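Reopening this one. Same input as before:
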Amino acid sequence: MKLEERTWPAIAEHSRDLPVVLPVAAIEQHGHHLPLATDSLLLGAIVERVEQARGERVLIAPLMWLGNSHHHLDFEGTLSCPPRVYLDLLAGLLDNLIGHGFRRLLVLNGHGGNDVPGKQALFEVRQKHRCREDLLLLFATYWTLGSQPSESVPEIVQEAMGHACEWETSMMLHLAPHLVGDYRNAPPVDPGDGFGPAARAWTTRERSIPGHIGYPHQACAAKGERLLDCFTSDVLQLIDRVAAWDGRSWESESK
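Same output, byte for byte:
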């Protein structure tokens, strides 16, 4: 169920052990062929499927479209929240929900740039409430929850998520083909190593002149449908683990 569609007395009646999902995404450049809202549209579609599948067994907050996208600011139209401000914003939202008594909170992420400040926000909130043994605070990016699309869908070329890539372009072709531009002529941009296994600080312009990373020319709507099915299934399984948590153990009953 969607938090914004409920009244406050209705929210007050729900169990505080109800899983609460806070979806976070972005408005940022996605190459020459995908709209700025790509991350928000894709995560929104997954969240909508989750809400339909679990109904009143999950409470979903409104999707937060403003993300940490400073690495895309060389491209017009990108809107970004500075990392420290973004971290504090997430921490404040989590504190709101904890203040309302909710104990099982999942920040569900749909944009890679939110990963570092998002995890730091959860770490800081957990330390603030360190005496609470009944809190479960999680951060998860939907495409890193276990599915290996390149294994389950042999037609998929990419082994991992890029940016405005085969995966994202395919999902957008399935969801909103009218918003997809000329992906067929987008040149391949290999993700590269970037001095791995070290973590290199980077801007998107350093990695890609057109703004995409990956192989959008390999995209198709059929792949997009399969990808959305895989990722939605992963999120549902995680939410079920949150719901089944016994309120004290370090691990969930099922992994």
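So the earlier flakiness isn't reproducible anymore. For the record, The two ends are 25 Å apart (CA to CA).
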